[in-house]
Design brief:
Layout lengths: L2 H19 L2 E8 H18 L4 E9 L17 H9 L3 E5 H7 L10 E4 L2 H10 L3 E3 L2
Parallel strand pairs: 1-2, 1-5, 2-3, 3-4
């Protein structure tokens, strides 16, 4: 192997290690009134301290409500602004489709930053099995 090939291989290994070493976290929100505002604040603080963290927010049950179009916090501020700001920082927000079915909600009722997953609890379990830390604000 030439020196150039060795350097390329070393650079690729270092890049792979950096991706592997990246913190990955799943935030679990199942009650808007108790967790949404606190969760968004925790996520912002998390990224302010560790900006390269990969964060997935999984919502189900009453936790999906803060991602509804026009949803407001207890202070009357729209949740859409902070969610959009966190999405711009790489955070993904996922909504349980079982919850949609059980509550007769439609995907079109949610803000554009919302993604959907067939089952919130299954998604959380799979993310944890893949090595993501679990946080429930």
């Amino acid at each position: 192997m030439s020196v150039r090939q060795s350097l390329v291989a070393l650079m690729l290994a270092c890049a792979s290690l950096a991706v592997w070493a990246q913190d990955k976290v799943v935030y679990h929100i199942d009650d808007m009134s108790l967790q949404a505002l606190k969760g968004l604040r925790n996520i912002r603080n998390h990224l302010d301290t560790e900006p390269n963290t990969k964060i997935t927010v999984v919502t189900h049950a009453l936790g999906v409500d803060f991602l509804l179009e026009g949803a407001k916090d207890v202070n009357g501020s729209l949740f859409a602004g902070p969610v959009a700001a966190l999405t711009a920082r790489g955070v993904t927000f996922e909504i349980c489709e079982i919850t949609l079915k059980n509550r007769n909600l439609k995907k079109e009722q949610f803000i554009q930053e919302a993604n959907f997953t067939p089952s919130g609890v299954v998604r959380i379990a799979k993310l944890q099995l893949a090595g993501q830390a679990y946080i429930k604000p």
